[in-house]
Design a protein that fits this description.
The complex is a heterodimer of chains A (about 120) and B (about 110). By secondary structure, chain A is mostly beta strands. Helix content of chain A is about 0%, strand content about 50%. Chain A contains no helices and 11 strands. In chain A, strand 4 and strand 5 form a beta hairpin. In chain B, a hairpin with a 4-residue loop joins strand 7 and strand 8. Chain B is globular, with a radius of gyration of 13 Å. The chains are: A mainly beta (about 120), B mainly beta (about 110).
């Protein structure tokens, strides 16, 4: 069974440019998460989806970040415009359903460098 | 303020010994706590979950304890091996909120 797929794996952009990350969760997983991870820190939740509905986006900086989950499957996270402080690893995770006892399966992440 | 702390950033132990990692939390009321392993350049991988009404969970060489009075979870790896070297993250689910991860502890098992 394929795991969570993310692309690209690496992205280097200049500040003020837009950037987008894509995530394909494990088939059948209704819950999808986007996290941000800085070096030496744990992941920080940005947004959680149940199917196509964003049920928790309280930590998403909405002035520059946006996300969508098309038809409750794939998801895209966008930053526009990017700032130097956005350099981090962006992780996508999925789980079976809304029962939060379910373990999360993480993708390999996208490492973003903003110059 | 709410806080999750894990014992020192890095822990070095000798192969064959038991590694003990600590996760302490402040001002959370976790329904449960999870432990994940993360290797460099990869996403975290789920290891164990322990609920608030459970004292201890085991899986092969892994053992987790959860003390809601001390507000602490301990994660043990017995008979440690160099392949156990990784960063270990604790994550708690706070009632009515969401997952919160600790900063992680980087474990190195020396041959």
């Amino acid at each position: 069974e394929a795991g969570v797929v993310q692309s690209p794996r690496y992205k280097i952009i200049e500040k003020k440019q837009p950037v987008a990350f894509w995530c394909n969760p494990i088939s059948g997983h209704n819950t999808l998460y986007w996290y941000l991870q800085n070096l030496g820190q744990g992941p920080e939740l940005l947004i959680r989806y149940e199917n196509e509905e964003a049920v928790d986006d309280s930590q998403l900086p909405k002035d520059r970040f946006s996300a969508e989950r098309l038809k409750g499957v794939d998801s895209t996270l966008k930053i526009q415009p990017a700032e130097l402080g956005d350099s981090a690893v962006y992780l996508c995770a999925s789980s079976l359903g809304p029962n939060l006892y379910n373990e999360q399966f993480f993708g390999p992440g996208t490492r973003l460098t903003v110059l | 303020s709410q806080k999750i702390e894990q014992n020192s950033e890095a822990l070095n132990i000798q192969e064959g010994k038991t590694a003990t990692l600590t996760c302490n939390y402040t001002n959370y009321s976790p329904a449960y706590l999870q432990w994940y392993r993360q290797d460099p350049g990869r996403g975290p991988v789920f290891l164990l979950l322990i609920r608030e009404n459970e004292k201890e969970k085991r899986k092969e060489r892994l053992k987790v304890t959860f003390d809601t009075t001390l507000k602490q979870s301990l994660f043990h790896i017995t008979a440690s091996q160099p392949a156990d070297s990784a960063t270990y993250l604790c994550a708690l689910y706070n009632y009515g909120q969401n997952f919160v991860f600790g900063p992680g502890t980087r474990l190195s098992v020396l041959p």
